[in-house]
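Q: What changes when zinc ion is included in the input?
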Amino acid sequence: MSRRIDVSVEDRGSPGDSGGGRVVGRGHPNTCPGCSSHFRDDELEATLRVCPQCGHHFPVRARDRIRQLVDGGTFSELDADVRSADPLNFFDLRSYRDRLAEAEVETGLGDAIITGSAKIERRPCEVAVMDFAFMGGSMGSVVGEKFARACERAAERQLPLVCVTASGGARMQEGILSLMQMPKTVCAVDVLRDSSCALFVVLTHPTTAGVLASFASLGDVTISEPGALLAFTGPRVVQQTVPGEKLPDDFGRAESNLRLGHVDAIVERGDLRTFIGRLLALFAKTEAP
Amino acid sequence: MSRRIDVSVEDRGSPGDSGGGRVVGRGHPNTCPGCSSHFRDDELEATLRVCPQCGHHFPVRARDRIRQLVDGGTFSELDADVRSADPLNFFDLRSYRDRLAEAEVETGLGDAIITGSAKIERRPCEVAVMDFAFMGGSMGSVVGEKFARACERAAERQLPLVCVTASGGARMQEGILSLMQMPKTVCAVDVLRDSSCALFVVLTHPTTAGVLASFASLGDVTISEPGALLAFTGPRVVQQTVPGEKLPDDFGRAESNLRLGHVDAIVERGDLRTFIGRLLALFAKTEAP
Amino acid sequence: MMPDADPSRAEKSELLRLRDRLARLRELPLVRGVGVQDELSRLQRQIERIKAAPSAEEVWRSVELARHLERPYTLDYVERLFDDFVELRGDRHLSDDRALVCGIGRFRRRTVALVGHQKGRDVHERARRNFGMAFPEGYRKAIRTMELAHRHGFPLFSLVDTPGAYPGVAAEQHGQGGWIARSQMTMVRIDVATVACVIGEGGSGGAVAIALADRVLMQENAVYSVISPEGCAAILWRDKTQAKKAAAAFKPDAVHCLELGIVDAVVPEPPGGAQTDYDAAAEVLGASIEDALAEIEGVDAGQRRSQRRAKFRTMGVLAAPES
Amino acid sequence: MMPDADPSRAEKSELLRLRDRLARLRELPLVRGVGVQDELSRLQRQIERIKAAPSAEEVWRSVELARHLERPYTLDYVERLFDDFVELRGDRHLSDDRALVCGIGRFRRRTVALVGHQKGRDVHERARRNFGMAFPEGYRKAIRTMELAHRHGFPLFSLVDTPGAYPGVAAEQHGQGGWIARSQMTMVRIDVATVACVIGEGGSGGAVAIALADRVLMQENAVYSVISPEGCAAILWRDKTQAKKAAAAFKPDAVHCLELGIVDAVVPEPPGGAQTDYDAAAEVLGASIEDALAEIEGVDAGQRRSQRRAKFRTMGVLAAPES
Ligand SMILES: [Zn+2]
Ligand SMILES: [Zn+2]
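A: The predicted holo structure follows.
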């Protein structure tokens, strides 16, 4: 029966087992899993949360990510008030409602994605940024809905959509409804395509399961941060399935994804804004501003 | 420099090194390379040129193939008078003109393909059948032209095209013009597609190089005869390129092509007509006759 | 659970009320099944289930029946529903994935394309079919088949029956996530009418890869879920043996899927499950697909594609905005 | 071989006559090169060549220059012709084939997509680029790029420079023939304007895979051929050392390709060959591509696709029917 396990949320940790964000960490989130250096918050902020010693990319919360990427003062958040219901009355060790409320208090977010309009390097675009700290970046109805609305807005305004992913997969507590966010977001990308609007996807650690197997893999250009785990099934479950099989050291990491042809570029965090700016310029429907 | 060799006509023999047809054979063409049995012509005719001992598929000449496949009396040949010119005044050990004349005398064909209209299992279709005996089934201007006309006729008459291939590749004596038969035939298949007409390709031994890398790989359904060599580059050149590398035993054969996902079915010669009849019925634009 | 043979007038009126509720739920007509005579009793069964949400035991029974080793698989239905079937094989790159069967065949005097998972009956075939768990190569073959259907105007059927995508090294290295995404994308884009039916296990991404259809049906004892009960139990309860509890919590059974608007109709099975009578199961499945197809084939292709997108667009449940 | 700086009136009239002949040959305007001032001299060179068919020595000189180790490669031109270039990598299945470079970039203030073979300059890079010999994965990446260009309306450039497809076991097993065919098919079907240029070796199927364009240009010292001279000699003369004789027989040089109607125009190189002055070679190439693009962008997309098909439809030479 072990072969049957089709895990949707697996790797909640960042490379080297650090926490999934500053809030829900195991071990101290500011200790570098690459070189064991420890940093103050302000030190990491100054380096965009990249280890100045070894280049390890620490997780970035969605609001911080937006601050890093978009032109100051240009972000206007939309659909901030969209919240999950609990259609299944789901209760495992705790109720889904409790988990949601707790996640909202802990993260200050309504769900695992922030969407809105912004400018990057003076070019207008729509943005959708996921936050792994909110229930492992899992995709439930809200993530699907806000992503779909972002696509529709981009199509309507004839703008590209820049999407930064970080997700352990589906939101199990929404059962089959969480699975349906895959076709729902795929349909939303199709709306973008029908309008010839570009989708740029930035895959960050970790992007797995249902998110990787839907909109995250449908970008016109696909970028990854260094070291990010990008796998439909993470290494632990693969290992469980075929216990004898030796996993390659960089199994599922951005670097092996590049080698195996699944991403277009690995871009360090410090270069990300410029890189996206170049893409926005290349895909712009009108001349430079 | 050996890596540079990009051979277009290589395997002129059939499996086990028998000749490429009844006319241009090395060794006796009626001795089975599979089991060394020897047969009279009439014995082989009676079994569609399949060895009754071991199932080896001997090469079939184009006119025989048409007799085997189409309903009696329904084939009307078209474009029989199209002939190659010699735009390069090509001369190797002999002149291209001499080779053409000799091939015509030996095979009774104007070039390496016969095209026309027919019915198979009572369903009308266009057919294009290659003949390996004519200069190794090589594709020059005539093969390209007659194939393209067959596609255009099929599109105009809203009929499927059934194409049986056997080719060593490009007709080197026509130089770059022979290479251009690849895009030319690809464009012709696109005409078929634009008319939603089906293309059924039957790959027979050997189908290689330029023919495999153009229309032969663009069928809606791709069938092969057992044991056929289907490779862009044949085993000898591959062996020359990386001399140390061990070729799999069935390298390039139909059976490995099926396993590796390149053909839809391997159909024995005795079943071919029925199989194509089923395809014609399934793809028919009108109800059964 | 079995319907009355002759429901009373009061029951009929209740049925109509519930039927109306169901129809409003999805704003789609209910599936007919075979023959007008049987409609009411079949409807009754669906509605009985919905009146009283299935118990944990009933949900688990579905899980067991969906995985039943004798349950009919894709090729069992193909054999019974298609007059002729030509399998299309291979992804044209690496291999022919035997966990996904693709082909074209004649269904009710017309040609359709089919993609479906195939688990395999005996030990040998099960290994060959990888227990119905496809590799990226399988989705690539399915995409090829969808594109062929699109080119030739063949309606596309898909039969979903997989524990999920295969969690192995090579499958990951070949881009499993990406190909599940692209398979869905192809199903959004093709112009032809598409009908999917979950006939056993609708397991997660491997299932949804081929289930983005105009109409999605589900057999009475099939399950459709984001994760296996065991997987869910292992993660949320940290205890694999809590699978039954997990299943009751995430409700993968057909009735719940219908009520949540995930599937358009439930396809009745013979009493005791599809494994008790392949022919009867196939007959009802065939009629249900035929009905579903009739509904969507009247619609213009462009509009059908818009409706397909709109249908999935509405899936999910949001909290009512605070006022 | 070098043109006069100031051709006399009689020579001008001869040029016009020959230019007319050339134009009729292809029924297409000749390429301008850079600047109106230089047109006549450049034209003169092309025409001198056509007046007197190149000798065996001249053909062989082209073979040598086309393979010259210092010849500019795709990325040398990208660097000089594009203001910005973002490489697109990977076939989304198995690997990123470094023998084919794909990407989008800014050319003359607009965005275009590019696919091109890349041989590699030093020993290490040559191995990494597999000497410019693509695997099926490379064509798959090219197809992906073509589809992106189609979706976004970017014109597509392709730069051809390969000894041919790679004759190896894995390449064969991954369906080399099929992917060369499908790459051509994608080039037939995309709606955007397409310009190909043979910038070095246009070797057989590997070249034609990305050369099915609205306009096909060829640099003055490039070669375009169905087989390498060595391969042809080995087969037809049964003697590899007869390569020069083979080349003279099958005539892979630009002038013959122009006269046979295989290419639409010859792009002049600096005296002595493109390797003597990368900047000058790039400037003329850029201008030639820009001109070719201007010609075809005026045409409606559907018509352009028809013309593209019609152009290749006419290739080949048949015997005049006996009357
Ligand atoms: Zn560090
Ligand atoms: Zn024999």
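Observations recorded in class: The interface with chain C takes residues 193, 196, 198, 220-221, 258-265, 275, 278-279, 281-284, 287 of chain B (CB under 8 Å).
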